[in-house]
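Service request form, structural biology core

Requester: graduate student, group of Dr. S.
Request type: structure prediction, single chain
Budget code: on file
Notes: please return the result as structure tokens.

Sequence provided:
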Amino acid sequence: MAELTLTDIAKHFGDAAALKSVTTTMRDGEFLALLGPSGCGKSTLLRLLAGFEHPTKGSIRIGDREVANAASRLNVPPEDRNIGIVFQSYALWPHMSVRRNVGYPLEIRRLSKAEREARIDAALAATALEPYGDRMPSDLSGGQRQRVALARCLVSDPTAVLLDEPLANLDVALRASMQAVFSDFHRRTTATMVYVTHDQAEAMAMADRIAVMNNGVIVQLDTPEALYARPRSRFVAEFIGEGAVVPLTGATQSDTGAEATLLGARLKVETDTALPAFACLRPENLTIAETGDIRARVERVTYLGGRYRLNLTAASGEALVTQSATRLTPGDQIGLALSAPWAFAAA
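Core staff response, request fulfilled:
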């Protein structure tokens, strides 16, 4: 396995910039998710790592080996990068059995039959497909087909594994079980994995770190916990998790911590900047209390199974979100106690 290093990577299609000066390192053995809305550049970044696209600017290294450099026009082809790829569409040969699908990359490399069989057995075992080796793809479920695609990717002992929205075609229950398959596989193999998705629940459940992308740049690269609890921009605060971003004023620092005024109340805030401009209010920052810090009106109530999501409008006009163990009614006026939210700068 190896690090994947991108230095000042840009990619243009005509006059349109799909990626703009991306510099980052994907650590050896980590599970990194590329997360963002459609058109943010995450799939383009994956295709550059795979070698399917050439960078307009910058360079890419896999371990100590440079595989792409726009200045020198170096571009090592995909088959020589030793990177495994799992696509959304499975891309299985319909006329080949599971074993033949998994072992086909080894046939192309002309490995001996004994070595092919040993590697196929290991890949099928790693993906829990040993009972299905003689079946055809048409006899498998969607989740089993996706595991065949993963096994085929693993059989060549790749330096890294790239996954391009591999669960997008599966139903909700199957996606949850396949998340466990990918996580277990990563734990067993310690492979470097780069996972493209627009589904934040997938990214938060599986990834060691998440690169949140927007408009061709990585706006924040951090652990799932840090992205949720300590977003560095309004985009990340609004894109990750539920909650609201509200402006604050009059921030001050003292020995007892930081304070600021938001929603008309003077409150303690958590921050690591001297001049925060916004606060991220997660549902857990808001507790229903008649003697709370602010008043709000219930606009919508949604049952989530054991609890209710409340969409609120504060007396100052901002939209808020919290949760309740009991059902309220739209139009109810409630008090809210605010615990110290995370505050960040405007940039």
